[in-house]
TrEMBL record:
<dbReference type="InterPro" id="IPR001347">
    <property type="entry name" value="SIS_dom"/>
</dbReference>
<dbReference type="InterPro" id="IPR046348">
    <property type="entry name" value="SIS_dom_sf"/>
</dbReference>
<protein>
    <submittedName>
        <fullName>Sugar isomerase</fullName>
    </submittedName>
</protein>
<feature type="compositionally biased region" description="Low complexity">
    <location>
        <begin position="288"/>
        <end position="317"/>
    </location>
</feature>
<dbReference type="GO" id="GO:0016853">
    <property type="term" value="F:isomerase activity"/>
</dbReference>
<feature type="domain" description="SIS">
    <location>
        <begin position="108"/>
        <end position="264"/>
    </location>
</feature>
<feature type="region of interest" description="Disordered">
    <location>
        <begin position="288"/>
        <end position="326"/>
    </location>
</feature>
<dbReference type="Pfam" id="PF01380">
    <property type="entry name" value="SIS"/>
</dbReference>
<keyword id="KW-0413">Isomerase</keyword>
Amino acid sequence: MVEHGPVHNSEVYVLSQTPFPNHLHRGGRPSPPSPITPAEDDFCCSPLDKLPLQDFVEPAIAACEEQLAVESRLSGAVHLLNTASTALSCITDLYSSDRIARDGFHRAVDAIVRRQGDHGRNGKLVIIGVGKSGHIAKKLVATFNSLAIQAVFLHPTEALHGDLGQINSRNDTLMLITFSGKTPELLLLLPHLDQSLPLILLTSHTRPETCEIVRQRPDTILLPAPIHEPETKSFGVSAPTTSTTVALSVGDALAMVASHELHPSVSKVFAKNHPGGAIGAALRCSSVSPSPSISSTTSGTTPSSSRTSSSMSISSQPPSPPPARHFLRDLAIPLHEIPCLESQPGHEPLSLTAADLLLAAYASPSGWNQTPHPLPTLPFFI
């Protein structure tokens, strides 16, 4: 006797007396019938269309790589500029609050100012440095000289081979530039420098006890120029970048402050010492700026033209300012003081234009003018 009815499936099964697996006896259900597989002839025999591979656009990998290279370049540049900006911000805070830095800057300016000019017996500033610090020294020498502060550059090695003669043993001021504070060339030169001359040290050290040059010469004027982090950490290489920027900025500040104390008008001495280039041309234009004044004369016209002719002349002397007026009666212009445009005897009446009246009013001492008869298109007074 059959225990179960036939099961619909994709194939025909012959039922036997073999019982189904135990899980069916436990209440399980057989799997649902499989879908009927369509015959092969039912498929569409038309060939598949080929993909348009010839129109396939390759991804713009090259363009993306180029854009990434550009962004990488700009990112590196912005990083360097931002690092330099941060270093300058830190050095500004240092000279705004640190006692040693402020005292060193004050003493450095005093040492330069006291030995310049006739009162300082025509002393000069001798700036010494080697390597990148030497280039900073040369730039500062140019800045000091343009601001009428006598300065010269001295290479430490050349100084040991005869150039020490550039130093006046009585009136000069010495300035050493070294980031490390222990440059071997400067340490070799240090014993040969006159200890009676004031010595300024532009270095990264902010405390005298950490600097080798200060330890060897305790009376050195310390002018700190530190950076907030090592250049190796900032850029992966110890090439002088942030350190030279900070040293140059502190040196420029020293030059500007000393020049303002030495000269009543720094702009005048700078213009005298810098006549060339675009800066010199701009300074010449700013020093010569005449205000032209225009005078106009009205003459009679011939019958054919019937117009006034105005001749203008430009004077290099600026017009005198009008007197101060504080009351309404001072602002009012009496009618008899306003010139009148009239034709000369024997000539036809004037045929005036607005330009004629404006020129005549501009030349008038009071700035006003009048016509003998009202004009339909112009007010009576201009």
